[in-house]
Amino acid sequence: MTAGEEPPMAMDRAGLAGFLRRRREALQPADVGLPVGARRRTRGLRREEVAMLVGMSTDYYTRLEQQRGPHPSEQMLAALARALHLSLDERDHLFELAGQHSPVRRARIDHIGPGMMRIVDRLADTPAMVVNSAGETLFQTGPAAALVGDDMAFRGLDRSIAYRWFTDPATRDRFPAEDHDHHARAHTGRLRVAATREGPDSRAAEIAEALLPISPSFAELWHRHDVGARLTDERKRLLHPELGVIEVFCQTLLDPDTAQVLLVYTATPGSDDHEKLAMLSAVSV
To answer: How far is CA 224 from CA 94, 121, 217, in A?
Structure first.
């Protein structure tokens, strides 16, 4: 163990198993956007339903509840916290039971609260995503991933669309070229607002510091101190690799406690764009 490194924590297998079971039993299928079905005997969610929501195998989850599973990773614990609609205190408790140091509260922008998750769970058939103040996608529905790409697959600085906009041409290729200048200004402006509000140790400030020496275009925009361009415009054009340009309306819901934004993409009923969104929702199921 290096100097300054926190000592490892022991995993409380019995405590973790009991906590997971109780939290699972406290949720109903409707709470997480699942159909109830007939002749349901299980109190709360089934183990396989939790596993599906988390993205792990049913066997893996079952072993955790039977006190014989391996140490879950931080990513797996974060996914469990979202699936079980845990509060921030409950999330920290989950990490500690699993032998992991709970994420620092300064990084609470990574945790989606139960209220926001209840809304997202009811949008399973709609392109919707939750984004934090640093431009990192915390959750996507299947149709959203089909529309804009799988943002959850990125790691490190690449998690932020603001960072990828200036470093990854594939990110810019999602949008018509004539809209690029606006998006560049919007991403930069939102990042500056977040860095100013959350301080020099924030995720937004870290991303800005990483971009300044490697992206002259970002540096130029950053030094303009322009915070007027909006990232979440109501009307937006997306360039899908197979369906071409799709014009959508981007409705937003802000959680003021976490500065997280829920983005919901819709299109005018009866329009070609509406048909395209319907196609994406169908293939993402």
So the answer is: 44, 39, 11
What structural domains does the chain harbor? 13-101 (1.10.260.40), 118-284 (3.30.450.180)
pTM listed for this prediction: 0.70
The CA angle 3-205-157, to the nearest 5 degrees, is 75
Torsion angle, CA of 60/85/234/248, rounded to 10 degrees? 40
165-179 confidence digits (pLDDT tens): 999 999 999 999 999
Which helix (DSSP H) or strand (DSSP E) does residue 185 occupy? helix 180-198
pLDDT in tens, 114-146: 888 889 988 988 999 999 989 999 999 999 999
| β-pair partners for 263 | 129, 252
pLDDT at residue 29 above 80? yes
Q: Quick one: CA dihedral 167, 171, 177, 179, positive or negative?
A: negative
Q: How far from chain centre, in Å, is Cα 4?
A: 30
Which residues of the chain form beta strands (DSSP E)?
128-131, 137-140, 235-240, 244-255, 260-266
Q: Order the strands of the 260-266 sheet from edge to edge.
A: 137-140, 128-131, 260-266, 244-255, 235-240
Check if the beta carbon of residue 145 is closer than 8 Å to that of residue 284.
yes
Which tokens hold the place of 87?
């509060």
Q: What is the pLDDT of residue 225?
A: 82
d(CA 122, CA 74): 26
